[in-house]
Design brief:
alpha/beta, 4-stranded parallel β-sheet
């Protein structure tokens, strides 16, 4: 019997830091024009939304993984962030009411993301994870995982996308 189709790895996305950097991004004239055109009409919302790079949506989709919001924005990410990046509505990780056991420096999202992944390989793009989270995932998650810490002052860079693409290619070779 031939094996069935495999589901692509999950790519968990945080918003504040990775997609909305804490410092304004330097943009060229052409990119500034594309941003202005891509932005939905001003809604009096978060003034930092202009820090989103609409090209990030295209680059994220091109990775080929299953994108999912892993942010405290929760469902609002689909309402506010997805349209600005040209993304479809994505699955949203619903966080538990309590942060759970975050002893020894473990990030409050880590255990929940491993449960949500349910044994699937995953990439986690966030600005708050540490080596404690990497070790915990390596110990308790049965599949490969890439926990990529994004510089919150810069946001996603080509180096980050390249690292994820490289990891995904390795994942295909393991299948």
């Amino acid at each position: 019997m031939l094996p069935g189709p495999t589901r692509p790895p999950l790519i968990f996305l945080d918003v504040d830091g990775p997609l909305i950097p804490f410092k304004a991004r330097l943009v060229g004239r052409e990119q500034a024009f594309r941003r202005a055109v891509a932005q939905p009409p001003a809604d009096g919302g978060n003034p930092l939304l202009d820090r989103l790079d609409p090209d990030d949506g295209r680059r994220l989709l091109a990775l080929g993984g299953q994108l999912a919001w892993a942010t405290t924005w929760m469902a609002e990410a689909n309402e506010v962030i997805s349209p600005r990046l040209g993304l479809p509505d994505l699955p949203v990780v619903e966080w538990p009411d309590s942060d759970g056991d975050t002893k020894h420096g473990l990030h409050w999202k880590t255990m929940h993301l491993v449960r949500w992944a349910a044994g699937r390989p995953f990439v986690w793009l966030d600005d708050e994870m540490t080596d404690v989270d990497r070790r915990w995932v390596a110990t308790y998650h049965p599949e490969r995982a890439l926990l990529r810490r994004i510089d919150p002052y810069v946001g996603l860079t080509e180096a980050d996308f390249s690292a994820v693409r490289h990891w995904l290619v390795q994942d295909e070779g393991a299948a």
